[in-house]
Design goal:
5 helices, single chain, globular, 3-stranded mixed sheet, alpha+beta, 30% helix, 243 residues, 11 strands
């Protein structure tokens, strides 16, 4: 009996010698995979809702950005998650020149393309963001980085400034105009260059009520800078829920 016991005890000890480390390795690998998945795997909203996904539906969406409530047709709202409504820190939208219409199937190619004269205007509202007034941004930031603070006459009644070669804005032009009520309109536009096939112009300004507006349009539509300014303000006013 003792010999039989000895015969069985040998193989059992051999199996236990590699089974335990293998089990530890397997458990450790599973736990590591779970941790990595938790921190790095995309969430369902990142995979679907958070991608730009315009719609041609025009149903009104009620939402708030900061302290301001809006009712916006769904075809202006870029992301599907935002079309669920509710409170949000930032809202990304789109509109089409010249009439500031939202996304339609007929204009889908404009929204998916990148032509230098595309009529698509991308604009965002952000709440509780301290955007500098434009004149203050000119005085405190831009004028310290241009080659000539007096500028030069630019296109479409704009004043044009060139940034120094050591400026972070060296690949842009600064264009300043006078909007309604004498407000400055400050545009940062990609320089016209052979390697810039579809240059943009950008603007960032406070709207009041804790809101900041940012918008971008093609430099090919720079002649319409006044229309873009007035049109977006009118659109946002139309979307605002009046108390």
């Amino acid at each position: 009996m003792s010999r039989a016991g000895d015969e069985f005890s040998g193989p059992i000890r051999q199996r236990s010698g590699w089974l335990v480390p293998l089990a530890v390795f397997f458990v450790t690998a599973c736990l590591s995979a779970l941790v990595l998945a938790y921190y790095f795997a995309p969430t369902p909203s990142q995979l679907t809702q958070e991608l730009p996904a315009p719609t041609d539906a025009t149903r009104p969406v009620t939402l708030s950005v900061g302290l301001v409530r809006f009712r916006i047709p769904a075809n202006y709202i870029v992301r599907a998650s935002a079309r669920l409504g509710g409170e949000m820190a930032q809202l990304d939208m789109i509109a089409m020149l010249p009439n500031f219409e939202g996304y339609t199937l007929g204009t889908a190619r404009e929204f998916t393309g990148n032509e230098p004269d595309s009529g698509v205007v991308y604009f965002s509202l952000a709440g509780n963001r301290a955007a500098l007034p434009e004149q203050e941004r000119i005085d405190r930031i831009y004028m310290h980085q241009v080659t000539d603070a007096s500028g030069a006459p630019g296109p479409y009644a704009l004043r044009q400034y060139a940034f120094r070669s050591d400026s972070g804005y060296r690949s842009e032009d600064l264009l300043v105009g006078v909007g309604d009520g004498g407000r400055p309109v400050v545009l940062i536009c990609n320089k016209l260059a052979p390697d810039t096939v579809s240059p943009n112009c950008l603007r960032d300004l406070p709207l009041g009520n804790g809101l900041a507006l940012s918008y971008r349009f093609k430099r090919g539509n720079l002649a319409d800078w006044r229309k873009v300014d007035a049109g977006l303000r009118a659109l946002i006013d139309r979307f605002t829920v009046k108390n």
